[in-house]
Structure formats: C-alpha cells, structure tokens
Amino acid sequence: MRFLTVSLGYPPEVPGGAWKVAEAQSMGLAARGHRVEVVTVDPRGDLEEMSWRGGVLIHRYRAGAGPFFARWRSANRAAAMRIRACLADDVPTVILQHHAYLEPAVATAPVPVVHTYHGPWAEEYRYASGLETGGWVRRIGRGMVMRAMRRVEKRALRRASRVLVLSRSMAGEAVRWHGRRLPEMEVVPGGVDGERYRPAPDREAVRRSWGLEGDDILVVAVRRLEARMGLDVLLDAFAAGGDGHPGARLWLTGRGSAEGRLREQAGRLGLEGRVRWLGHLDEADVPRLLQAADVAVMPSLGLEGFGLATVEALACGTPVLGSRAGATPELLEPLGGELLFEAGCVASLAGRLRRVLEEPGRLPSRERCAAYGRGFEWRRQVEACERLGLALVEGREG
After folding, report:
1. Which of 72, 241, 261, 308 would be 350's cystine partner, CB 3.0–4.6 Å?
2. What is the domain extent for residue 370?
3. Do 228 and 300 meet the contact criterion of CB atoms below 8 Å apart?
4. Do 144 and 229 share a domain, yes or no?
C-alpha cells in the first residue's frame, strides 16, 4: 500500500513543528518498507517538482500569489493535480493530511484520510495577522478569512476517516471549535530524534565552542519570532528576573514577522550585550545550542499543540520553563509544577527565571530531564499511522 502525505509545509524548506511531524511520519513509514509520497509546497519556486529524500518521493507545487483566497484556490488546484497523478496507478492508498489548507484538494481523492490535527487554523491566523489592529475594512476582511478557515477545517475533520492529535489539549481544541461530531480521535504524542538530541559527552567543550564562560548562565528560546510565541513576555521577564545577574544571557533563534518589534523592545529594556539573536540555525547547531544552555523557555501565549522544542531540549538534558498554554503543562508537570508559569504573565516568568539564576539546583537534574525526554519516540506516531492505514485499506477491500 501507499501512504500519501499532504502537507502545507515540509522540512527543511518550510520549518515548523507541524511539518516535522509530517516528515517523521513519512520517513518512519518509508523505513518500515511502505511506499510513501508527499505533496507539499515549493515556497520559493526554485525546487525540483519531484525529488527523493529519506526513501520518500516528494511532489511539489508552486505557491500562489495575490490575496488570500486567490492564493488558496491556486494552491489547491495545483495540489489536486499532484494528488491525481499520484493516485493514477490504483495502488491502495491512505492520505495523511496535515492542516486543512489543502482540504479542497484532498477532497478530490477517493481514498481514506487520517488527519493529524495540529491546532485551530483561524486562531493561528488571528495571532499572525493581529485581527484587532488596523482599520475597520481590514478587520472585516480578516474576519471573513477566519470564518472561511473554520468552515474548511470543520469539513476536513468531519470528512476524515480518523483524526490524530499530539496532546489532550489539541483534542479539546478540536471539540471546542468544531463540536463533538468528529471522527474517532487518538492522542499520540510527538517524538524526538534521539540520535541528534541527546546530552553532550563534553558539555563544557560545547559551551566553549559557543564562546560561553564558566559563570555564564544561558537561557535559550528556540522559537519562530511570531506574536503567539510570547517572546515579548520573555524579554520583559528576563530584564526583570535577570537584574543583578550579569552572567545571565538570553539567546533567541529563528526568524519571523515580530523580529523587528522584539529587537526594538530589547533595546528599550537595555538588554544589548545580554540578548543574542542567532537567526536561523543549521539543523546540526540546534542540539549543540540546547546542550550548552542552562535552561530553555517556552513562553507561548496559546495554541501549543505539542511542543517539539520542549522535548528536544529535555532530551539534551536541558530543563525547560514553560507557560501554562496548550500542551506544555502535559509535558512538564511530570517533572514538577515549578517549571510552569502563567501564560502572558511577565511577573510569573520573571519569578521563575530569578529562582533559576539564584538557585539552579532547584531545577530537575540534567540526567532526569534527558531520561524523560528520551521517552518521546517517533515510533509511536509511525506505528499509529501504519495501524490506522492498514485497517482503513483492509476495511475498504473487505
């Protein structure tokens, strides 16, 4: 049989946790001997239409241009053509759908669908676009887009044969926005690549390679620089909680639409020299950064469907402070409630940071964090997709 992954993004060209899940499912199924193909976007228009990677055949369509609805229709026409071409050989197929953006294209395929739900599309758009900002015409236009997103997402979920979610939190979000008349949902946590994300054999050497000195205390956030990520809260909290600790350093990775505002904020707070902007890191450098860090922070304001960055940091042995948003409490509470702070609350996070800087021994040990992080294996995602896919195909053939 064949698994056909249909995803709005796919690494490395399109970064993001949801697309890492799509990649892990696809490559894991290919490693188990299944035929796996992917339909996804060519974000810059400079990639081959078809290429192989990790035993997976990737089909790409060009991203559209213009207003949202024009881009959306164009993308779905192009994706539908790729899907039809993939299905032309009559091989029994199950679609693994990631995100509702390509729902019109997926709906053209007469095959079962397993939908991995990563979170409410319209609410992500609300954070990204700033629905409450701008003139009334822009606000009305964005409201129309959000209503369309909700309709399409509800249709995608209700049309699916099965729905996978990575956390109980996301199962709740699906019901909250789309009601209880949904297919059977199964909670299967995300995973971590244990070969890449693991404690450093010589952590001090890794720290020296980043230019850190013995007394430096490194706080990191491996996040896209977007409003939902709560990095403005982190900057304010670091300025307050790190006051009086000259060795405290805050390093931020990633790019995003909020970068300019965040840099201006850091300047206003007088954090020059203490905050370092690392931009987009090569894949090999992310584990090294996490190994060097004393603590990682996940300050999301909401919609944290799982938190791959959380388990990746833990697998490297690095404790994580996380907001009480989305799935983060599910991940961190087994290590202790003192790792959690109130989402969007500067004082709450500042208090946690101050305690880390003054009493680092109160954090879970690096050994305990690493052992816990290693427990998140992609194998569970792959096995769930395989089990559901085989059952759906056998059910149709029977």
Report:
1. 241
2. 203-374
3. yes
4. no
